[in-house]
Design goal:
Elements (H helix, E strand, L loop, with lengths): L4 E13 L2 E12 L5 E5 L4 H12 L6 E5 L4 E5 L1 E7 L14 H15 L3 H17 L2 E7 L4 H14 L2 E5 L1 E2 L13 H18 L6 E3 L2 E2 L7 H14 L3 E5 L3 H10 L2 H4 L6 H7 L7 E5 L5 H10 L2 E4 L1 H6 L7 H5 L6 E3 L11 H18 L1 E2 L2 E2 L7 H15 L17 E5 L1 E2 L17 E2 L5 H11 L5 E6 L2 E5 L2
Helix pairs in contact: 3-4, 4-5, 5-6, 13-14
Bound molecules: xanthine and zinc ion.
Zinc ion binds next to strand 6.
Length: 475
């Protein structure tokens, strides 16, 4: 049976641009049976919507499902996690005192290798999808593992659960454990193609799930492998995801492994290595980019590559504080947020947004990063929410499809609910499961949203839709 047309009524909050959140109240949004937004009406009561909007769309009242945001609730675009390792979910919060290179060896490679066990992979991936949906993540750029069947399974599970996803089989053929690496460049390419073919078979139009070419990071890939993956991206038009300049020891290692004589690049910087291999494209998502030099940032901007800012991970693994405003935003580089779970300790993009705001304040406090003044580094609530939604949409190549309430976009949305506190100090609305965000009634809308950003969690995410389909409901 076809999904019904839907009419959403109440308050809607979304980013118009980087520094501007818009809130629409007493508004109506109509979503057709394919999940597309077909009308956005400001100042529109339910009665007016029924009298004017439905007839204009040619919809019969009794065929329309009406969803109302109750008091204390508002619709907000779904979050986009631009960098998340589905395979590392069991390790969230487990990183001890390690930093990137020893963390990979001690915690990460053994766990990822163990997911070649299909029972374990199904258990972990099923849980990751449920968990991220429950936190409002409607779209995720996932890293899986090198294993083809379980990476295919992750794509299947996303498709079935209705989560929008980019799913990448990891490529790594050097500086990796003997039992967890691609045996050869040829097998890495063949396995990547097999994963691409599988995803094409389950979602030929890539309406929900699409493949993403995934060289893990330069140290784990030979120049030949990176070149062939660059060529594959060109041949297929598919996006690419990888890590860049996360940690200073990693950057020094890249310099040792890839002198210009090996890559043919102009210099031995991390960005130049990827560029020489055809991996720096307008469809490339670069995770971290904490320590880019100015000339690397300029190269990234020229190539129109995108950046996934991963503040939880950068702090947890003591990688550093990315100078987001100076290096990315002021240069016009598209930037979104990544949980980078489990380098990051949380599956929540809201937590990543909160940490993006806090880390940017640490950048201000530090006075300088890499010798550059950072006085204007602080990111506002409006800005981090932009990165979590519209910014992320641009990073994953879906800027015209998701991230806001605009006619023509898909209904990838979460319903947020906050506690309303009555005169007796008790919560007077909702399901008794409203979390930590208490609203007293005198806060402006921007302040209510700020309270959610700094104190909210999955208890505030009441319902989640992707392409108009209800994919999570909090019970
Ligand atoms: O945060 C990170 N997580 C990873 O899994 C990884 N692999 C290479 N570089 C990495 N960084
Ligand atoms: Zn990562």
């Amino acid at each position: 049976m076809a999904a019904p047309n839907k009419l959403f009524l109440g308050s809607f909050v979304h980013s118009k641009k980087l520094k501007e959140i818009e809130s629409l109240h007493n508004a109506a949004v109509a979503v057709d049976s394919s999940g597309k937004i077909v009308a956005v009406e400001k100042d529109c009561s339910e009665g007016r919507a029924r009298e004017t909007v439905l007839p204009r769309l040619g919809w019969r009242e009794d065929e329309v499902e009406v969803v109302r945001a109750a008091d204390g609730q508002f619709f907000f675009p779904g979050f986009i996690d631009t960098h998340i390792h589905a395979s590392q979910y069991p390790n969230v919060g487990i990183f001890g005192e390690s930093t990137l290179l020893d963390w990979l060896k001690k915690y990460t490679f053994p766990l990822e290798a163990s997911l070649a066990d299909s029972t374990k992979a199904r258990q972990v991936y099923t849980r990751v999808i449920r968990k991220t949906l429950s936190h409002g993540t409607t779209c995720a750029a996932y890293y899986a593992t090198i294993d083809v069947p379980s990476t295919n399974l992750l794509a299947d599970l996303c498709h079935t659960a209705g989560q929008r996803a980019l799913v990448g089989r990891i490529c790594m053929n050097q500086n990796s454990p003997d039992k967890y690496r691609d045996a050869s460049v040829e097998s890495a390419i063949a396995d990547t193609r097999a994963n691409i073919e599988h995803i094409r078979s389950i979602d030929p139009s890539m309406a929900l799930v699409r493949p993403i070419i995934t060289p893990r990071f330069a140290p784990a890939c030979s120049v030949d492998l990176m070149r062939q993956l660059g060529a594959l991206a060109k041949e297929t038009g598919l996006p690419i995801q990888t890590h860049i300049s996360e940690n200073t020891a990693e950057i020094a290692f890249v310099g040792e492994l890839f002198p210009p004589s090996v890559t043919g690049a102009a210099d031995d910087t991390y960005a130049a290595v990827y560029d020489a291999c055809g991996l720096l494209t307008e469809r490339t998502i670069l995770g971290h980019a904490v320590h880019l030099t100015d000339s690397e940032a300029e190269l990234v901007a020229r190539r129109k590559a995108k950046i996934s800012h991963c503040p939880c991970s950068n702090s947890a693994l003591t990688s550093g504080a990315a100078p987001v405003r100076r290096q990315f935003l002021d240069r016009g580089i598209a930037c979104g947020l990544g949980t980078d779970m489990s380098g990051g300790y949380s599956p929540s993009v809201l937590e990543a947004a909160r940490q993006a705001a806090l880390v940017s304040r640490q950048v201000v406090l530090s006075g300088t990063v890499d010798g550059k003044r950072e006085d204007g580094a602080a990111l506002s609530v409006d800005e981090v929410l932009y990165l979590a939604t519209r910014g992320g949409a641009e990073v994953v190549g879906l800027a015209d499809k998701v991230g806001a309430f605009e006619v023509g976009m898909d209904w990838d949305v979460q319903l947020i609910g906050l506690n309303i506190v009555g005169e007796d100090g008790e919560v007077i609305n909702g399901d008794g499961d409203g979390g930590d965000v208490d609203v007293f009634g005198w806060e402006s809308w921007p302040n209510q949203v700020a309270k959610w950003v700094y104190n909210g969690d999955d208890r505030n995410t009441k319902k989640v839709w992707v392409k108009g389909r209800l994919v999570h409901e909090r019970r």
